[in-house]
Amino acid sequence: MxxxxxxxxxxxxxxxxxxxxxxVDDVSFSISPGSITTVVGESGSGxxxxxxxxxxxxxxxxxxxxxxxxxxxxxPNRELSGYWREVQAVFQDPFSAFNQFFHVRRxxxxxxxxxxxxxxxxxxxxxxxxxxxGLDREVLHKYPHQLSGGQRQRVMIARALxxxxxxxxxxxxxSMLDASLRANVLNVLTDLRRDMGxxxxxxxxxxxxxxxxxxxxxxxxxGKLVESGPADDVIFRPQNEYTQQLLADxxxxxxxx
Length: 257
Fold this sequence. Notes:
The protein is α/β, with parallel strands linked by helices. It has helices at 47-55, 77-86, 94-97, 104-109, 112-115, 119-132, 149-161, 179-196, 207-213, 231-236, 241-248; strands at 5-14, 21-31, 36-40, 62-67, 70-71, 87-90, 167-171, 199-204, 216-221, 224-230. The longest helix is centred in the C-terminal third of the chain and has 18 residues, at 179-196. The protein starts with a strand and ends in a 9-residue tail after the last helix.
């Protein structure tokens, strides 16, 4: 099976001379279609910088990114809108992603400029997106402050689905939610993979969440990829000391105190 996303030797350096920071340092991996790959690491490990590089929001210092075999490393501005139809993202804070004066219908309808549909076709696209994230049409008339954190995040996922993307990047998409809402959003992601065959790159500092949703796990530390493999191998048979440390910090219901 051909990989959907391939990243080779990706590097991003910030600063100059003595103050250089290698936020992403020679990272290589690939993602198969219809899979959930989780990037895990502590704050400052380079996870979000990696996401922004893949999204084309910042240019890499070196390396290569391919989507479906096409080099998308340094796309010109005129091609980015087409790329963003295929690669969508959901970020950490759903509230700040909203215009507070827009109700949900207006937020979703703004996608018509990119997807090129209107009228009944746009309504059908909105209904499909809401169905996929478990929201009914009543939410269309609500404003951000009228929604729970979990509802806001599901609306943001629905907005991404309006594009019918081939890859969804969820960058710390559950970190601002409480435990029950977090589980709800994780279930939405796994359902999207199951029902739509959507490929997901899930980024989190919580390796416990990686256990729950992942086919593969990539562990980053200080910009480097220090361990990767099938989720069961990384979670239950970690080889790297840093991965072992992350797993040791996961709360357990039973065991020695």
